[in-house]
Amino acid sequence: MEQGEAAPPAAEGKEGEEEDDFGYRLFPDRNKKPQSFLVRSLFTFHNRCQLMLRMTLDTNPYAQLLLEAMKQSGCTVFNDRHFSCENCDGCVSGGFDSATSQIVLCQNNIRHQSHMNRVVTHELIHAFDHCRAHVDWFKNVKHLACSEIRAANLSGDCTLMNEIARFKFGLKGHHQTCVRDRAIRSILAVRKVSKETAEKAVDEVFDACFNDLEPFGRIPHSKTDAKRAYKDFQNRDRYNANL
């Protein structure tokens, strides 16, 4: 999660089960009655969020690949149904709500287009995992850890430029370190578990989930990589048909 993208509906199981709010405290608008279109249209944050979302869905190769992969998996994404621009806690940028199959975009915290691109991509990876696998977000912290590892690895969260912007530098293995750290942070943001529990869950599934590159087929370290991955994905069926 990028300071952060969070998945509110997943939970740790028995540890702290009675007190765990599943991370919904970070998304206060989730429990409010939806505002009318007229009321929402008066708020600049909401309008800006909708415009940036549309730009991402129309032009960003990371998002376009994920949308097409979900459609092929039988989970077509619709803008009005599966995305919601809302006000959130100051520490998060977005989240995937598995209870409603909806991506929450924090309109008060997403300030520029590149940030929107990254948040949408991160949450679409959670949505893709939710579509293709039987993810137990509520009770299995390893499932949450796996999806967070994949989201950090494939969304561009840990690109060199993003890490430099965070004043984090590293040499060999830095990408893996970034992915691990961000996955742990994501779990701690939305689950009432100890740091040791989060670290153990991430470490136990790290290799398998880090190497699961679907639907990209590669780690897209840049938009150019994402464009190539998108083109390759579009050609998969054609190449298979010619075998």
TrEMBL record:
Entry keyword set: Hydrolase, Metal-binding, Metalloprotease, Protease
- Region (Disordered) residue ranges read 1-25
**Ranges annotated as biased composition (Low complexity):** 1-11
Molecular function GO labels: metal ion binding; metalloendopeptidase activity
Top-level taxon of the source organism: Eukaryota
> Where are the bilayer-spanning segments?
none
A Gene Ontology annotation in the biological process aspect, one of them, is:
mitochondrial proton-transporting ATP synthase complex assembly
EC code: 3.4.24.-
Q: Name one GO cellular component term.
A: mitochondrion
> Which PANTHER family does this one have?
MITOCHONDRIAL INNER MEMBRANE PROTEASE, MITOCHONDRIAL INNER MEMBRANE PROTEASE ATP23 HOMOLOG
Task: Give the UniProt family note.
Answer: Belongs to the peptidase M76 family.
What is the protein name given in its UniProt record?
Mitochondrial inner membrane protease ATP23
Q: Encoded by which gene?
A: Atp23
